[in-house]
Write a structure and sequence with these properties.
This protein has 274 residues and is an alpha/beta fold. It has helices spanning 21-31, 53-65, 106-114, 136-142, 158-175, 193-208, 212-221, 229-241, 256-259; strands at 7-8, 45-48, 72-78, 87-89, 94-97, 100-103, 120-121, 147-153, 179-184, 189-191, 247-254, 265-273.
């Protein structure tokens, strides 16, 4: 049993998603298409959005419904708070969500830290970060036995992300067990809807080509406000090292689809990589 200090408490429960366990479960299952388990295909990785469920839940639900969630899942999320280490792992205990605790994959966390490639044990980056937390109800709905390796990434360049992804692939390969790597990311922020859709296509193309360097380059060069560029680049490098050849866009939407305000929207893409 994890000690109280090792249980990461929810930061955005009741704001980004329902605080009541029953309401959360019902909403997630609805986004998954009415059934939590069954269906989907095995993937090396995926990109899922992390906004409030009223905005990004439909896209997240479709990408998770399209994917088999194994017992072991690595979630890579961006650092919105600026706190903590650059590749911060919550290395033991559990993540609390309403009505559940998601166990940390302490073995995989330890192996990543012991690999001495940049992953470090650090709780500070996780304390107020929403981008990882919001993926967990979907993962546990798809597989109630899922355990998580929680990683927050910030302050890295493209080469460092690729190196982390390759190292992650090597550690996963040594496990001899199926592992899904989730990159938590929204797309362009606060532009008109039509502009957002065009710009986001420029970042989606290299993800569909499983090209981490190409993704990082276009986002940096064209100043695309994709907040999860570091997780997505790292996930793609990991997937490519594990043999992935292509990505598929499962769903795309903007926040304008939720309420019709098209002046300043955020883009959301659901991508699987296999």
């Amino acid at each position: 049993m994890a000690s109280e200090l090792d249980v990461r408490q929810p930061a955005v429960s009741g704001r980004f998603y329902p605080a009541a366990p029953g309401a959360l479960r019902a909403e997630v299952v609805q986004f998954l298409g009415g059934e939590a388990t069954g269906g989907g295909k095995r993937r090396f990785g995926l990109v899922a959005p992390h906004a409030g469920y009223v905005y990004s839940g439909p896209v997240a639900g479709k990408v998770f419904a399209d994917t088999v969630v194994p017992r072991r899942v690595v979630v890579l999320a961006p650092n919105h708070t600026g706190r903590g280490a650059r590749a911060a792992i919550w290395a033991r205990g559990a993540f609390a969500i309403p009505g559940d605790q998601v166990p940390v994959d302490e073995e995989l966390c330890a192996r990543l830290i012991e690999a001495n490639v940049g992953f470090v044990a650090d709780k500070e980056a996780h304390r107020a970060e929403h981008a990882l937390e919001v993926e967990l109800p979907f993962l546990r709905a798809r597989n109630p036995d899922a355990i998580v390796t929680p990683v927050i990434l910030g302050g890295l360049d493209g080469a460092e992300c690729v190196a982390l992804g390759r190292a992650l692939a090597e550690v996963i390969g040594a496990l001899g067990e199926d592992v899904l790597v989730v990159a938590s990311s929204d797309m362009s922020h606060y532009l008109p809807d039509d502009v957002t859709r065009k710009i986001d296509q420029r970042a989606i193309r290299p993800m569909l080509a499983c090209d981490p360097e190409g993704l990082f380059d276009v986002v940096e060069r064209e100043e695309i406000s994709m907040c999860g560029i570091l997780p997505a680049t790292t996930m793609l490098a990991c997937a490519r090292s594990r043999g992935a050849a292509r990505g598929t866009l499962v769903a795309y939407a903007t926040s304008g689809d939720a309420f019709g305000d098209l002046d300043r929207v955020v883009g959301y893409a659901g991508i699987v990589v296999d």
